[in-house]
Design a protein that fits this description.
The protein contains 5 helices and 2 strands; from the N terminus they run H-H-E-H-H-H-E. The chain is mostly helical. A two-stranded antiparallel sheet has the order 1-2.
């Protein structure tokens, strides 16, 4: 029987695995967005607006809806990372989140989520960083003090 390897000795996570896990995580996030949107629709209708009237584009209410969708996805991601080390999308790809100093704190996880969001908004620039990083870490990995590790089958 071999001794377990430390996170630093495990093979680096490949960018394609990260992107595949992100694609898989899009589906639970989409379900959360539908739920949040349904709650907004009910609240909008209860507030006295006609049932078939849409929320005005670029209104404060629409920005609040986008913020609620983003925050609900953040709650899903950070709680999944905190209490299981992985989201649903990371499981089939055998990716696990670790902190450089042990167990990641909620502050580190939210920092990672915010930076990853900004990275995606900038055409994935922080993800492409992994192609040039010696440890294949993304920019949000580096800045949040976390890393994704590939856990091979045992």
């Amino acid at each position: 029987m071999t001794a377990p390897t430390s996170p630093r000795n495990r093979p680096p996570t490949l960018l394609l695995r990260r992107l595949a896990a992100l694609f898989y995580d899009f589906w639970p996030a989409l379900a959360l967005w539908m739920l949040v949107s349904a709650l907004f629709t009910v609240a909008y209708t209860v507030a006295g607006h006609p049932p078939r009237e849409n929320i005005a584009p670029l209104s404060a209410l629409q920005w609040l809806l986008w913020l609620a969708c983003w925050a609900s996805t953040g709650v899903y991601a950070t709680l999944s990372w905190r209490y299981g080390g992985q989201t649903l999308g990371m499981r089939p790809w055998r990716l696990h989140l670790r902190a450089d100093n042990g167990t990641p704190s909620m502050a580190q996880l939210w920092k990672r989520y915010v930076l990853a969001t900004l990275s995606l908004a900038c055409a994935g620039l922080g993800f492409w960083w992994a192609l040039f990083d010696p440890e294949r870490r993304t920019l949000h990995d580096r800045l949040s003090g976390t890393r994704l590790v590939f856990v091979p089958k045992q």
